[in-house]
Amino acid sequence: MSSTTREFLGHPIGLSYLFFTEMWERFSYYGMRALLVLYMTQYLLIDPSLSDSVIGYTAIADMLRYLFGDLSVIGVSSQIYGLYTGFVYFTPFIGGLLADKYLGKTNAVYAGAILMAIGHFLMAFEPFFLFALVFLILGNGLFKPNLTAQVGSLYQPGDSRVDSAYTIYYMGVNLGAFFSPIVCGTLGQKVGWHYGFAAAGIGMLVGTFVYWRGTKHLPKENQNVIKANASEEAANENWVRPLLVIGYLCFVNILFWGVFEQQGNALQVWADEKTNWNVLGFDIPSSWFQTLNPFFIVLLAPLLNKVWAWQRSRTSEPSSIVKMAIGCGWMAVAFLLMMFVAGLAEGQEKLNVLWVAGVVLLFTIGELYLSPIGQAMVSRVAPARMVSMFMGVWFLSSFFGNYLAGYIGSFYDNMSNQNYFLIMVAMSLLAVVMFLAPYKKLAVWIEKKDR
């Protein structure tokens, strides 16, 4: 069977290579992220002799305390976490622009993978901690938008499988995210921090190898810069309104990601302090908290695909924008439950892990209603020669959202847990209103084309 006819879950075989490339890249990213706050708060920044050895740390800590007041170690760590995870999603805009104009998607993916591998291995050396984060940020900027954009390039315009393709691809993201805290988190917390970071670097190298093996199954335009022809230039004005809508939706997404990314920040700290991680006699590392969200993604994504297919057959499937509003609604419900759980934790030593697992289950449903749906929409709406750049615009909302998560997290130990999680509820509900209030105008501009 030729490469052009082979399939993967009813999709072009190239999707399988993108799926497993992203799986290994996310293994490396989430493995490192599961350890990052714990590494800073329990090792690197609590010992002045270690923190002073980190090149550039004193200047950054002084700047953060000048801007935000007398921050604790948790506060400084939260700010660094927010800056790192934020800039990871800022640089894809630049990486997408470079790929569209100069590099081509494939070359950009290779360059990004090499930079990220270097960053992961630099984490083994305390003085280069901040340099490692910079390499990871730059590498992700080249890698993330260009790999994601290639999913849409596997399909002809109008192919109804695109939404399903991005949901399958999203399962690859979360399969890697599921295994990474188990491997990297366990190595980091039980053996040594640097073993966990080294495992993340090896995962990045494996992902690069998988991508190399699959390049022949991807469209040739991935290797080249697509030149606009005269007819497309003349039609560019037809894209102005849809792209304005994408910009607005990205703005609203900031609120969603500011809430969602608490799972790697304040929720990780809460889970470490307030949850009993002794399960069936096994003392599980608290970094395994990070496995709950990807586990539920892999479990629920096929089910939601079937629900949407059933709704589609009855012409009752929600539009993309309504789905995203529904996703934010689920986030509000999740953090209402978290407020209740935080109340239970007062006066008790440790809570059963099932409570926090229930919270993660609810906001995972919200994530599935928003993230892959938005990526599929961008791949359909953006001009062919600008897909990577506009995928970068989509990820740009995650930059502001991740930084917002880090900024809010700096107040975590200055207020009650219930009040903190109430802020998450309010932000989620505000996002619902912002998605739905201008819906009629947005539908006129984009929904007919999007669907």
The CATH class is Mainly Alpha
- Tell me the series of helices and strands, N- to C-terminal: EEHHHHHHHHHHHHEEEHHEHHHH
The helix-and-strand class reads: mainly alpha
Beta strands, count: 6
What CATH calls the topology is Growth Hormone, Chain: A
What number of structural domains do the residues give? Answer: 1
Percent of sequence in beta strands? under 5%
* Strands in their spatial order, largest beta sheet: 1-2
Task: Please identify, by name, the CATH architecture.
Answer: Up-down Bundle
Q: What overall geometry do the principal axes of the alpha carbons give?
A: globular
How far do the termini sit from each other? Answer: 33 Å
The CATH superfamily title: MFS general substrate transporter like domains
Number of helical stretches of at least 4 residues: 18
User: Mean pLDDT across all residues, rounded?
Assistant: 84
Helical content band = over 70%
> Spans with pLDDT under 50 lasting ≥5 residues?
none
What is the rounded Rg? 21 Å
